[in-house]
Amino acid sequence: MRKPIIAGNWKMNNTKAEAETLIKELIPLVKDAEAEVVVCVPYTVIETAARLTKGTNIKVGAENVAWADKGAFTGEVSAAMLKEVGAQYVIIGHSERRQYFGETDETVNKRTVQALKNGFAPIVCVGETLTEREGGVTEAVCKRQVEGAFAGIGVEDAQKTVVAYEPVWAIGTGKTATGEQAQETIAYIRSVLAGLYGAAAENIRIQYGGSMNPSNVKELMEKKDIDGGLIGGASLKAADFSKVVNYR
Ligand code: PEP
Predict the structure, then answer these.
(1) Which one is catalytic: 36, 63, 94, 103?
(2) 72 Ramachandran zone, left/alpha/beta (phi>0; psi -120 to 50)
(3) pLDDT digits (tens, 9 = 90+) for 64-123
(4) Burial 165-177 (b: 16+ CB within 10 A, else e)
């Protein structure tokens, strides 16, 4: 029922020339994918990525979006601007933005509302730090972040939203959550969504993110509640990303 979704998060990588090379390599490698394929890229290469992937099965996303329509928000990029250059998805609340750029549950919510209002599919990131996991508060943290992100969002819009469960201790560290750990927390997140949206929670896709790569993707994707992956490092090489996309 839930179509798997594998999304790359390029973070602050790839100039225009590098983006062109990577996208051109990727197109033939993922053309028969069963999963939905998305690449979330820096603002400066969204237009390039959208142009090159036109007519293919690869969709393009941004890595953030402003919560306001326009105005005095130096450094921010609006939903209308992102739409104009061809983005359809947008990552919101990535742990790096929470950690380095002051993103909070409240700003994540405002950005998510704005993304939905403008027809984007938001990919909302949640997840605990190592200290939080060791302190036994993983579920409390995920509940707070999910309820915060979805505040005021109706059931129709909720089903257009993708949640990425990304334990912070597994991002860019080479440490992956085991299939059991990821499934356990993702099932918990689905129960939180069920508290908000009832049976419609079964339609909301929840990805795992955190050092997902060609060698662990199968084990993770076999789990009942894991509907895809948000892929950082392994999305920067066409061969690796395509192996994750074609995980079956
Ligand atoms: C991410 O940035 O969302 C991520 C999961 O990174 P990595 O795959 O490199 O851990």
Answers:
(1) 94
(2) beta
(3) 999 999 999 999 999 999 999 999 999 999 999 999 999 999 999 999 999 999 999 999
(4) bbbbbbbeeeebb
Which H or E element spans position 230?
strand 228-231
Q: Is 90 exceeded by the pLDDT of residue 174?
A: no
Q: What angle do CA 243, 89, 133 make, to 5 degrees?
A: 70
Identify the residue whose C-alpha is closest to ligand 1 atom 6.
232
Annotate 129-142 with b (16+ C-beta within 10 A) or e (fewer).
beebbeeeebbebb
CA distances from 19 to 39, 45, 235 (A): 11, 7, 12
Q: Is 233 in the pocket of ligand 1 (CB under 6 A)?
A: yes
Q: How far apart are CA 196 and CA 193, in angstroms?
A: 5
